[in-house]
Amino acid sequence: MRAVKRFMGLLRENLKSKLWMIVAVWYVFGMFCLLFSTKMTIPTGEVRSLYVGAGNTSFFTGMLFFGILMGAGSFRCLYSQQKADLMLSLPFSRKQLFAAEYISNMVIFASSLIVCRFLFFRISVSMGYSRYEDSLFSVWAGCIILFLGFLLVMNLTILASFLAQNWGYTVFLLVLFFFGPAAGMAVTEKMFRLFIPSFYYSETLERLKGCLSPLPLLENAAGIRDFVDGAAWRIDEYLFHILFLAFLTIILLAVNFFIFQIRPVERKRNMFTFKPVCLLVRYGCMLLAVLWLICALQVFSFGLFKTVFIVTGILFGVPLVHGLLNILISFDARKFISARWHLLAEVLAVIFVVAVFAVSGKRESGFPSEKQVDAMAVVLTALQSGDDSSQVLLNMKLTGEEMEKAYEWVSANCMEEDGDFEVLVRFDLKNGREKYCKYQISWPALYGFEEIFSGREFKEGCYEEMRLDSLKYYEVRWTNGMESYTLDLNEEERQQLLKAYQEDFDDLTFSDIRTHTPTGRFDFVSIKNQGDVSGYIYPEFIKVQKLLEEYGIAGSRSISAYKITKIVVDKYMLTQGLLYHWNSLEWEKTFTDEEYIKELSKVLYFEDFCEDYLLNEKNPDMEFAVYYRDSQGKTVNRVKCRALADPAGNEALKSLLKL
């Protein structure tokens, strides 16, 4: 009992010494509540600083700031020999000193966080931004997640202060803790791309990025990047990262507790407390720097793998980084060429790591056999009319006969280098793994893509409008680029339109995509925040065109059918550089002659509909600004258009291209 009273006295004195920190935490979190209460309306769009859950960016930033500040303020006496001797001479064990410092920080942050978060929540409820019964769980979860995040950041800061012997190297270690894992994952991905030309994505690597790097882990656990709050927040979507955050926090707490017990009080000449730490920093930074240099030198190979740049990076990069690390660790420029045995060990370490990447790259670059594949997804990146490539890879699942056709086409036509088009492939292997690859194909290989495109599973995976099953909570808008209308349709008529559109799309072929440009577009706009969906209308859509005629809309009306007053043509010149390319205006012409405009407008297409210009050969170097009058002939509008790359026998365009 006496020992408990003595410890409580120690804890009380520790809290008294941190009055300035208590005031700072309560002031900052209190100001968040005060500033929020002065807002009379919600700003336009999603503002995550207004969230009552873990995704509140203001409290998230405060958590990071006070985690570092309190961690740095703990055990700061260790940097002074006299203060360290005085602290350790007190009638308390190191365990008690550590516990008092740690618990006081927890009490200061947790008390202010919980009170201010719930005050913030009550203000939100009173202003009508949140509902009490819906958002209460989100508020509690936000308190727990931010408290765990605070402990993680504080533990990392304390660990850096335990391992270093001055403030400069503490900051260096802290930066290394926060950004080193992310840099390591990034350079690993670069090395995979270097040794595996077909490498595109690795689920394992992405998961490691989100777990081993402190900032991404905190963002994933709190849902900072997601527009989710209140009743819409679901813990199961963040549970893995929350549990990993708690696990990592406990591990760091145990490590800090152990190191504090064995940390020597006497200051040494080295900048780090333990020699193994110095070796880890040296070799870790060496590997990161040299591997980054090797990847950077590959830029000069213009996308082709060059062994000479790897050898150059090792021969010149290792000695250079070795010397810089000598200066950094010893703080003496004369030590640049010292530690020759370390230099030899570093060269061998880099060679070993590069060899591991080379061997694993050779093993992973192999094409899986058809017997190993359970399902596939194939994305032709030039097919821009579909969904985003990453989304298509997730949504598409080719099985059965469609998978067999896709596998046969990919294995026959895809190569790792020197192609005209890029193809992304996801293999769902029977052992449960998913393998993502990137290949190149030649222009003639597009003819074989016809059978893959015609499959129902491919179209549903590539086009979101094919996955819609109801338009109950959508309104339908139509545009041909020149005019736009919102269709006044009831639920049954909207469903009839969707059915006709999907049936026409089922009959659409890849040849149609390559030879025709859309004549219009439907925008299915959600009235229940389910996300908007757009779908292009092609000349072959007979059923859709018939319905549009019934609605009084000339769906097949082309640009040349409008009263065009003038066309302004901009010709751009593409300049290719080593690292990037840029466009510059070569000339501009304005045409008002009616006969010329009539001929030219026949080969122009609304720019927003030319998504697949790489497949149906639209001219990327010329822009056409078309000025026209609307259906009533009163208002002059302006749209941007593109023309066919091949003049297609049009003499007016031929003469224009010769200028």
**N-end to C-end Cα span:** 97 Å
Instruction: Tell me which oligomeric state these chains represent.
Output: single chain
Put simply, the count of helices is 23
Helix content: 40-55%
Give the percentage of residues in beta strands: 5-15%
The strand count comes to 13
Query: Average pLDDT value?
Result: 83
- With strands numbered from the N-terminus, the spatial order across the biggest sheet is 10-9-12-13-11
Summarize the structure.
The protein has helices at residues 2-16, 19-37, 57-73, 81-88, 94-126, 132-163, 167-195, 203-212, 214-222, 239-262, 275-297, 307-330, 340-364, 389-395, 400-413, 450-453, 456-462, 491-507, 510-515, 542-550, 594-601, 613-616, 651-657; strands at residues 199-201, 373-380, 421-429, 434-441, 474-479, 484-486, 520-526, 533-537, 563-576, 581-591, 604-606, 622-629, 636-643. By secondary structure, the chain is an alpha+beta fold.
Describe the protein's architecture and organization.
The longest helix is centred in the N-terminal third of the chain and has 33 residues, at 94-126. The model has no long low-confidence stretch (mean pLDDT 83). This protein has a 5-stranded antiparallel sheet, covered by helices on one side. Helix 6 crosses helix 7 and helix 6 (132-163) runs antiparallel to helix 9. Helix content is 53%, strand content 14%. The chain has 659 residues and is an alpha+beta fold. The N and C termini lie far apart (97 Å). It is built from 23 helices and 13 strands. The protein has helices at 2-16, 19-37, 57-73, 81-88, 94-126, 132-163, 167-195, 203-212, 214-222, 239-262, 275-297, 307-330, 340-364, 389-395, 400-413, 450-453, 456-462, 491-507, 510-515, 542-550, 594-601, 613-616, 651-657; strands at residues 199-201, 373-380, 421-429, 434-441, 474-479, 484-486, 520-526, 533-537, 563-576, 581-591, 604-606, 622-629, 636-643.
